[in-house]
């Protein structure tokens, strides 16, 4: 970000104008039926956030954050959204239509300042850089608290907490910030129940080396497959449903590998992420199926020959309010393809 001092001054003036205007968005009363919330203090990715009152002009920097806020019924408190990868699902479309889109892709500092936010939410810490929305330190200096999903910051959380539990803690912390604790608690409870149901269904699954292996094919960019590594949510999904991610030994979320390496691991099942709405070459599930069928080695895998392929929305393989839906599809798909306990 060029001329940081000058840009910070512009941002500060914009925030002051938004907050002091008698008819501006900063003076909106709480939505009908919602009592004013008290001050909140939480820790987000190692940073203490203290808010004297619930945000009224929150900006979500990515789709997962946007959908979480919409699920919590906070569309009237949102001043912007950005970085949409796929279409907003039907259950959120009416609420989403009320929120300004401040950037079609990754938000820049200028775009964020123009929205005059009083709170920002991001699913990953890398959205807070000097050449993107601005660093968390820069935003803190402007009195704009910045929230990062706990899933992207495991080193700052108690050891042993699963990725899903970290995701649920996001709901609970955002509930505190916005004064919607009851709704957040219901959401976390419902999703914990969905995870427990998938785990119970797999309780009798073979353990150890007998667990079926799964390759998660996220995208096939320039002909090269990107699969789920050991640090992403799919590894936990595998454990919950009684399977094992075939690339658990790779300490990345979505590493690029070769088709030959996929074949060498010879998975029992292949989960294909459908990203057709994103529109890049190779994004659709049909294109990925065709690429595997045409490959001289991968096409010979039993999982491909026997059609042990499970399709899920690709965005649901990254941590989001919709991830439990993908978990259910994977559990059902394993059962449908013969992994019945």
TrEMBL record:
Superkingdom per UniProt: Bacteria
PROSITE patterns named among the record's database cross-references: FE_B12_PBP (PS50983), PROKAR_LIPOPROTEIN (PS51257)
Record keyword Glycoprotein present: no
Gene3D superfamilies for the chain: Nitrogenase molybdenum iron protein domain (3.40.50.1980)
Pfam families referenced in this protein's UniProt entry, alphabetically: Peripla_BP_2
Domain Fe/B12 periplasmic-binding: 57-341
Family classification: Belongs to the bacterial solute-binding protein 8 family.
Protein name listed in UniProt: Iron ABC transporter substrate-binding protein
Natural source organism: Streptomyces globosus
């Amino acid at each position: 970000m060029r001329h940081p001092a000058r840009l910070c001054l512009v941002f500060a003036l914009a925030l002051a104008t938004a907050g002091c205007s008698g008819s501006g968005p900063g003076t909106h009363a709480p939505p009908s039926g919602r009592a004013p919330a008290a001050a909140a203090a939480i820790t987000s990715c190692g940073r203490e956030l203290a808010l004297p009152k619930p945000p009224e002009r929150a900006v979500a920097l990515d789709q997962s954050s946007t959908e979480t806020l919409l699920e919590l019924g906070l569309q009237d408190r949102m001043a912007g959204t950005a970085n949409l990868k796929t279409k907003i699902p039907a259950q959120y479309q009416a609420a989403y239509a009320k929120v300004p889109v401040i950037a079609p892709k990754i938000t820049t500092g200028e775009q964020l300042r123009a929205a005059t936010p009083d709170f920002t939410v991001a699913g990953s810490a890398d959205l807070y850089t000097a050449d993107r929305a601005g660093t968390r330190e820069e935003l803190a200096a402007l009195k704009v608290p910045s929230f990062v999903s706990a899933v992207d910051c495991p080193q700052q959380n108690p050891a042993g907490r699963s990725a899903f539990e970290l995701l649920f803690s996001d709901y609970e912390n955002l509930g505190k910030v916005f004064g919607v604790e009851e709704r957040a608690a219901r959401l976390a409870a419902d999703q914990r129940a969905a995870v427990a149901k998938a785990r119970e269904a797999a309780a009798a699954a073979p353990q150890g080396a007998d667990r079926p292996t799964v390759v998660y094919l996220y995208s096939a960019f320039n002909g090269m497959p990107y699969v789920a590594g050991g640090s992403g949510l799919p590894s936990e999904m595998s454990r919950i449903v009684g399977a094992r991610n075939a690339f658990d030994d790779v300490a990345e979320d979505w590493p690029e590998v070769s088709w030959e390496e996929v074949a060498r691991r010879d998975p029992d099942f292949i989960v294909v992420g459908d990203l057709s709405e994103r529109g890049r070459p190779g994004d659709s599930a049909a294109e990925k199926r065709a690429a595997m069928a045409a490959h001289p080695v991968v096409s010979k895998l039993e999982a491909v020959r026997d059609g042990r392929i499970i399709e899920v929305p690709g965005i649901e393989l990254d941590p989001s309010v919709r991830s439990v839906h993908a978990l259910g599809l994977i559990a059902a798909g394993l059962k449908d393809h013969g992994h019945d306990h």
